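Side project, low priority. Logging it here so it doesn't get lost.
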Amino acid sequence: MNTQDVKQTVIGIIADQAMLEPGDIAMDSTPESLGIDSMGLVEAIFAIEEAFDISVPFNANEPQGSEFDISTVAHIVTGVEALIAEQRA
């Protein structure tokens, strides 16, 4: 799976959670700016884990303290790419 596929899949999952079209999701959008609450974020993380068969180091109780950066869509995409690379190594 190439970088563009990862990006499109992650944006699709985030768009579903935000009830927006993928074209409405900017790479510098934050989950909050897209209207995704903590429950929606957890659901998005689960969907990402399922889509890519990876385990995301995300603590829903302490999202800011997690190893996985969820501050923007771009950071989420970068984090997913890194986890996929680690799994293949």
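Brief comment: The helical segments are 3-18, 38-52, 73-88.
Revisit when time allows.
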